[in-house]
Amino acid sequence: MSPNRTVHDRRPVVRPLVVALSALLPLAAAAQEAPATKDPVALDALQVTAQRRVENAKDVPVAITAIQGEKLDVLGSAGDDIRFLAARVPSLNIESSYGRAFPRFYIRGLGNTDFDLNASQPVSLVYDDVVQESPLLKGFPLFDLAGVEVLRGPQGTLFGRNTPAGVVKFDSARPSQDADGYVKVAYGSYDTWNVQGAYGGPLTSRWSARVSALYQRRDDWVTNTRANAPAQGFEGYDEGAARVQFLYEGDDFEALFNLHKRKLNGTARLFRANIIQPGTNKLVENFDRDEVATDGQNFSDLETWGGSARLQWNLGSVTLHSITGYETAESLNHGDIDGGYGASFLGAGNYGPGFIPFPSESADGLPHHRQWTQEFRVESNEWGRFDWQAGVFYFDEDVTIDSFNYDSLTPGNPQTGHAVQQQRNKAWAAFASGDFDVTDKFKLRAGVRYTQDKKDFTASVLQAVDGGTPVSGPYVANTDVDDVSWDLSGVYQLTDNINAYARVAKGFRAPSIQGRLAFGGVTQADSEKVISYEAGIKADLFDRRARLGFSVFRYNVDGQQLIAVGGSNNTATLLNADKTIGQGAELDFEAYLTDNVLLTLGSSYNDTEIKDSDLAVAICGGGCTITDPTTVIDGATYALVNGNSLPQAPKWIHNLTLRAGFPVNDSSEFYVYTDWAYKSAVNFFLYESPEFRSRSSLEGGLRLGYNWDYGQYDVAVFGRNLTDQVRVVGAIDFNNLTGFLNEPRTFGVEFTAKF
Fold first, then answer.
1. Domain TonB-dependent receptor-like beta-barrel: where (predicted)?
2. pLDDT tens, 422-449?
3. Cβ–Cβ contacts within 10 Å for residue 18, how many?
């Protein structure tokens, strides 16, 4: 047991879940007593596109979790952003120090805590077959989706941008010749509105279209108690997004065009000074999450838009695919990083809330960004025992990043620093993948991808006043690398309903460059390479009333890219660890307990460890307790992190949903839906400190509803984070014991009409 865990930590984890399940047992029994339908209920076959073609998930040798339909709607009912998926899938964590604008993904412990707008991540996000490389593109809202797939382990053969940890894949509902749509309106705590809808149908006998839109807003619900501060309320947002699609279906040709846009206005991540008790990971006494005292500005503005053209030609024995994508983003995110107000200089005294060694207020902007991607892929059409696909991929990204510093101790918060970075990243790849039916029961799959990646980078410090005159620089860095990723797997049919599989894969992430000149200058990390081993079973059980997926895995990362952030000098330094290892197991289970009671369970165990006896990182700037061995380098103290787990990598994740329906007649029912997610403690930084290690968390939701007219209409009341659990989910370590929190408890009502 970790020294930071106590028996008391476990009680709030277990009790709410036990109480909720106990309350639902009589409901489940009542649902079981409902009149049975003529045909027993069974799970639909789970169709996925993990191998770039539609297949039954049971036949795919990759650990996959899919979320779709009602479950996806329930989890997103409170208007939360993409982070609501965290811990709802085995081995998946998502966090952000930017709020809704910049999610960071972790699969099996592999991720990137880097807050730079130029940061790359080892988890790739693919939206409608187009990779979203910039971290500001990864938070596009989830609405009108056909489904979400999370692919764990390296996916570099078929998904071509930085996938050594895995892929999170979103697919929008497509247009069709069948007219349909929906409208959903939800209202809840803090004057929260979540309104979305879609409509699609035929334009001609060949053309169809679909329009989807979303609007979400929430009032500022955290009050700034600092008098005469620039901002008096926080944590509100106003967000809109829309997507329009046109589909042409010819005899041997299909074209799907997609245009989408997002606009977000709100507050940036709200940092709270001195909220952690020294020597522990508990909140200070009398902490009030509805209040904060800070003297800086706080806002987040983000606008993205893009488009894609997905074309396919059926040429008889093969099908040719072309996927062209364009994305662009513009943003400015401004926050009071020290989380309070005032500062103490040369013994001048303390200012609230608590001691703040020095003020820190900054902003990061993306005045220019654009990304082009192009893929051509050819796949075979039922070549018998052997099927294959091959193609080429091109990526071109151009980005400019502004970083600003401000003086919150001077009226008007004048700008005191301005640095700019520019990067052009071009990459191309060629790939091939195939599967061969060795026997009727045994299938082999293999794939290979060659990638060439080049980055040209410059950074400069500019005059704070005019923003155009260079003070220092330009600092130049360049990378030019190539690599070969591959995978080999086999699927064996043990019975008609149970498959076993094994897979070994190599993943690759291109070098990274960071130029935050106010935080340590230009640093660079070399390529990282992952070898992953995985085996598992996938089964349909009890006449398809239940579905099981179980996997075990182990991976080795050579040269893992890590970011050492903060420390007493407030630096942000890219580095490579000599080696990282991870191992664990994952479970996905779904079953109809009765015809009207559906249960889903997910669980994962992830054990990660940094293996580098020489790796030393700067320690916190104040207030924390370092438990790692330390060393002195050039007069400064550093922590030796060999043996530590990776940051933001929970060892345990568990999730559960239970839906009980109570039919009124053939076309209507009352229902109860509850969902719970548990996540064990994580380190926020590379070094270990009790103050900067989260407490375990258990968050649950409940939905009570009634639907009628065969599910065409639905009205429900819901609650999220029912136990009102308050947890620190991230921290700032260079200044004081500053942290930021999870989402609050919310309640609401929702109406949905489908047509």
1. 286-722
2. 999 999 999 999 999 999 999 999 999 9
3. 9
Confidence band for 23, pLDDT divided at 50, 70 and 90 = very low
Q: What length is written for the chain?
A: 755
Compute the distance between CA of residue 623 and CA of residue 253 in angstroms, rounded to an integer.
Answer: 64
**pLDDT tier at 54 (50, 70, 90 boundaries)?**
confident
| Burial status of residue 614 (CB atoms within 10 A of its CB: 0-12, 13-18, 19 or more) | exposed
- pLDDT class of 467 with cuts at 50, 70, 90: low
**Domain 47-754: CATH architecture, name and number where available:** Beta Barrel (2.40)
Average pLDDT, the chain: 90
Q: Is residue 502 predicted with pLDDT exceeding 90?
A: yes
In the chain, where the domains are located: 47-754
Per the listing, tokens 């608590």 go with: 354
What's the pLDDT at 519? 67
Distance CA 581, CA 278 (A): 31
CA dihedral 733, 301, 83, 373 (to 10 degrees): -110
- What are the distances in angstroms from CA 186 to CA 122, 141, 278, 340, 706? 35, 16, 41, 34, 15
How do 616-618 and 636-640 pair as beta strands? antiparallel
- Give 528-551 pLDDT, tens digit per residue: 999 999 999 999 999 999 999 999
How is residue 331 written in tokens?
Answer: 């943003």
Answer left, alpha or beta for residue 440, where phi above 0 means left and psi between -120 and 50 means alpha: alpha
Backbone φ, ψ for residue 219 (5° rounding): -70, 155
β-strand partners of 555: 532, 582
What DSSP line would sit under 487-508, residue for residue? EEEEEEESSSSEEEEEEEEEEE
Helix (H) / strand (E) element for 24: namely helix 7-32
* Residue that is written with structure tokens 């169809």 in the block: 208
* Tens digits of residue pLDDT in 393-427: 999 999 999 999 898 888 878 888 899 999 999 99
Cα distances from 398 to residues 126, 161, 332, 478, 647, in angstroms, run 19, 15, 17, 14, 29
Which amino acid, residue 674?
A: T
Strand pairing report for 291-292 and 253-266: unpaired
Strands 233-234 and 180-188, how do they pair? unpaired
Query: With contact defined as beta carbons under 8 Å apart, do 654 and 721 qualify?
Result: no
> Does residue 650 have a cis bond before it (omega within 30 degrees)?
no
Nearest one of 10, 142, 190, 76 to 701, comparing CA atoms? 76
Confidence class for position 636, pLDDT limits 50, 70, 90: confident
pLDDT of amino acid 344 = 53
Q: How far apart are CA 392 and CA 377, in angstroms?
A: 7
- Partnered with residue 164 across adjacent β-strands are none
Distance CA 255, CA 314 (A): 12
Question: Rounded to 5, what percent of the chain is helix, strand, coil?
Answer: 5, 55, 35
User: Token pair of 137, please?
Assistant: 């593109």
Q: Is the pLDDT of residue 30 over 60?
A: no
Rounded alpha-carbon distances, angstroms, from residue 196 to 145, 185, 471: 12, 7, 48
Sign of CA dihedral 337, 342, 347, 353: negative
Distance of CA 76 to the CA centre of its chain: 14
Q: Which two tokens stand for residue 421?
A: 């970075």
Distance CA 199, CA 209 (A): 8
Residue 39 pLDDT more than 50?
yes
Residues 162-190, mean pLDDT to the nearest whole number: 95
* Encoded amino acid at 238, one letter: D
